[in-house]
Amino acid sequence: MTAASQPVGRFGPGLTRLILPRLPPAWAHVIRVVLGVWIALYLSYFLQLDSPYWAPTTVLLVAHPVRGALFSKSQWRILGTIVGAAGTVTLVAAFPQEPILFMASVSVWLGIFTFIASLLRYFRAYGAVLAGLTISLIAFGAVEHPETILNLALARIAAVTLGVLSAAFVSLIFHGSVGELEVERRVGFLMGAVASLLRSELQGQADRSPHSEQARISLDLAGVDEVIEFASAESFDISRRSTALRIGIAELFGALVAGSHTMPMMRDVAARLPGNHAAYDLGVAALNGALTQFVQHSGSPDAKTRGQLLRVALTARDELGTLVQDCTSDAHVMALAHARELLDRLSRAVQSIGMVRDEARPGPIRLRAYLDWRTALRNGLRAMSAMGLGSLFWIATAWPSGGSMLAMLGVMCSLLATNPSAGAASVDFAKGVVLSVLFAFVCAFEMLTHVDGFPLLALAILPFVAGGAYATTRPRLAPVGIPLLIFFMPLVGPTNPMHYDIVAFFNTAFAYVCGSICAVFAFRILLPPDPVLNVRRLCNSIGRAVERLGRPGPVQGRLQWEHLQHQKLARLLGRLQGASTPRREAVLKEASAAITVGSAAIQVRTALATGTLPAPILAAAEAAIHLLRDLRTNAAAAAVRSAEVSRLLAERSAGAPQSDELVRMAGAFQRIGTLIEQNWRFFQHPGASFQGDVQC
Fold it and tell me: What is the pLDDT of residues 637-661, one digit of tens each?
């Protein structure tokens, strides 16, 4: 359930409840879109814009069921349009009579901003896409008359701004704010989901494959960042708390990834050492009780509940610290260390998520996004090459509608570049373009020719706009519905007065269809995305990140390091959507195990940096950690040495007072040794076993 599924008006102002009384969310979204289109089109006529249809088209493009997303998308669309318009004027002025140089510069411009868009996230990427493709939407209309370029650029900016203001006005009047409540609800739900899965694994009662459930929760956790981003655009409170919320989600993600491996380790201890071990049994009961409290209170994410959960986690953690002193078995010591580490993570997650506005200072921790430079470079080169080849075709054939074909080609090559399945998405996009041509023809030549006046014009476009807007609210229909909305209004081309030129319509429509087909071939032929290679590269990146932790020198903070690896894991899951379930679960298991190894290694190196450990232990621990740099060639040695150090630390800490740091290090080394031993192939041949099982 997303923010879009909240009943519109329940949290909104009185006017919203009066006009849109608890409508289904999809239909409430459709009504807002239709009203925004009507207002934008009417104002475009009133202001006598040269291309009035671009304002309602902008409404269709920025419309979003979540108000914060609409605001974010709108501001980045305006910024991207301004940058693109400025670039258009500059290039036309630089090459007014040099078509080859001009088209070459347009191709390079599009490639650069497609590259930038591939490195950004959310609607920042959309803004970069607009900066790149706006030049093709404006410049190709001024090729024969370059002296008009400034007027065309200003008209484009005016139309986009008018559309954005119309959409924002309708959203402010008829759309209740649900962003802040959605963040609280999603975070509470996911906290309960993580605790439920960990409790099931602790008890050995998972109803289905735990790794399938872990994959689902991992994707949901990765998606919360987007919810925070959009809620920050409309809520000052969420904006102030955004960094703390992201830190809390990162801790929750870490608990999920590490817990999926440490829970089986704890069950293994109970299976290997049956009998009456009072301290260990009490520790397991304390962990189980804390997880149960998290599950039971996940539906009430208020401040009081968070305070209660924090107390529960801290109490259970302190109880485990006391019980360790009563353990005489090193296996039990390490198992309780795993449990305590998990409770530490949960308590930090609750503490960060529960920060109130006055406490939500950014702090020293900065979580940065993972940048996939190779994929971004490939996307940029593909867009540049496709536009360059299309430009040569246009120049060679002197096709009058070639500019429209290039505009479509540029839109698809840049807009779809960041899609994980760009090849399949381009086919759906082309289908939407064909549908937009058919619907535009029916609307323009079968309906509008029989009406007169703005009210009848508004009613004529109503079914097409409403149907397209509704399609975008359905995941299966959205890939086709989005291009339908993008190109419907430009193809109909409502002007004041209206002109009907069926020859010009078919020329433009044919150019659009040709451009979409060329884009499909571009994604298949020009540097085509290779899902198998992407899987192997992401696995290799995670493995190499773990290896670097064995090298001398300072290390990154554990949370920052984990956050980068969690982003790689989420991308990995997206790339594996076409893989078989067993292989998808296998790669998730191995990748998450590698992340857990790296997290434990950073924990050990942080403890070693304090310089408070005895010399023999310090030397043994440093030697074991340094072996991580040879995981690619000798993972077995690292696993054996880590297991030996783990037993040494556990023996020294069992029954000994003031051995808290030794207990934590014992647990960390056991995680390192056990997981490397179980997943050594991942480090030596990352992702190789999945070749041929992933499809575009």
Answer: 999 999 898 888 877 765 555 467 7
CA 201/CA 270 separation, integer angstroms: 13
Structure token digits, residue 527: 């540097």
| Whole-angstrom distance, CA of residue 328 vs CA of residue 670 | 17
The pLDDT tens digits of the residues spanning 54-89 come to 999 999 999 888 888 888 889 999 999 999 999 989
Cα–Cα distance measured from residue 26 to residue 4, given in angstroms and rounded to the nearest whole number = 8
Assess contact for 251 and 563: CB atoms under 8 A. Answer: no
Q: How far apart are CA 156 and CA 153, in angstroms?
A: 5
- Check residue 300 and give its pLDDT: 65
Q: Cα–Cα distances in Å, from 95 out to 90, 129, 136?
A: 9, 23, 15
CB atoms within 10 A of CB 582: 10
Work out the angle between the directed axes of helices 581-609 and 558-575 (0-180°, nearest 10).
170
> Which residue is associated with the tokens 């979580």?
367
**pLDDT, tens only, 93-119:** 888 778 889 899 999 999 999 999 999
Nearest CA to 372 among 257, 132, 542? 542
- Two structure tokens written together for 151: 């007027």
Give the predicted TM-score (pTM) of the model. 0.86
Taking Cα atoms as reference points, which of 567, 587, 568 lies closest to residue 579?
A: 587
- Token couple for 631: 């995981």
